Amino acid sequence: MKTEWDYTDLADAYLERPAYAPELLVELFEIGGLQKGDRVCDIGSGVAHLTIPLAEQGFLVDAVEPNDAMRANGIKRTSAMENVTWYEGTGEETGRPTGEYDFVSFGSSFNVCDRELAMKEVNRLLKSGKWFTCMWNHRQLDDPIQSKIESIIKDNIEGYGYGTRRESQTEIISSAPYFHNVIEKEGTIVHIQKVVKTVEAWRSHGTLHRQAGDKFAKIIEQIESYLKSLGVDDIEIPYTTRAWIAQKK
Hints:
The protein is of the alpha/beta class and about 250 residues long.
């Protein structure tokens, strides 16, 4: 399925991205009142970074992903999970049944949707009184290594920004007529990764890819050169997982 944001060339690199903070996920599932066997629609499932922990909790997960290459990787990673079913669809049009879901989730995907249309779709999918969540992993930019990488990027791209993915989602969710009890939560996770895999993960950075244009390869080369200059095989990358969760009225 073709969408405005095409992740085909980034699909394999996305496998190197970090998981979401496990303790935070448990807290979100508890707020949502989820129990084993509940039905979840995971929208923009990508390569299954959020789909997998949902399935590991025993939920029945319908994973919705528009990009064929991303979905293929997600299917491969969850092939042994009988409680995961994959579908082609978008956040605005999932193609999934009305009023059948106990929980709806967006892992690093809410920002690539028309959020107002996506929330209308979430409202259609959810049972009354049930919850949806959206979340992102943010590198902690005060970490020395991440601070240096940030300077490399901004030296090459004037006005570089992260768009809505680093913004608070409270206002837009609260302004929709469908939800209340909007709660913001966060957790931390340290991703230990080989330098070569870190560089590969940067090749999956869609926000950088879109803003860099023909400078993208140069920026990746500079990041790679810097990381190799550290003289280590592995680096620790601290992330903050920021999430919003809201209840259907």
